[in-house]
Amino acid sequence: MPDGPHVVVIVDDHALFAQGLALLLESRAGETFQVAGFATAGEDAVALVGKHRAGIAIIDLALPPLGGVETIRRVKAAYPCTRVLALSGTEDLSLAAAALRAGADGYLAKSADPEVLVAPLLALVAGVRVVRAELLDALLAAADRTADGLVDRLGPRDIELWTLLARGLETAEIARPMLVSERTAKRMIASLLHKLGVANRIEAAALAGRCGLLDGPDGLR
Prior knowledge:
By secondary structure, the protein is an alpha/beta fold. The chain is built from eleven helices and six strands.
């Protein structure tokens, strides 16, 4: 962790909320966090993070017209080491999941008590992802419902590919048993991730575990 206060920027289209949040952080944890700047449009977020070399970006998910999810994706693409806390005025599970997939390191509802914001920010800078327990339970339940019947909707080649992917094999190692070139294997993997509705191989492996794909020595039969 760096010496001195952690630099924070806030991206929220409600300026009064952003200013109130900044005052709260300064009054409760001024020695730990320094709010260096604000933006009311997602399009300005990347430049704002870069200008202040912010270690933390607090981003509202309701940012017309770009949207908070795309804003998070752009910030994390430009500054992957910057920790992003997504805030939302709704309890929309799909929006929360989209924010986390886009790279958010934490998610809190705006209805959460502002007094408890300091602890989640400290967790973020320590490398811990922050999601309220009830939201995590709901996301896991939704993921389990999504997994139901997924295996039955996939063909044998997709199942074979998914199994190899879930075991952590590299693309070249997957290509050989699938009897395809490495380039073709890359395309097949991208197509499978899309079918599964996951963002990367790690999520695919986790979903494989929930579906029982890796049960037994040879995986699902």
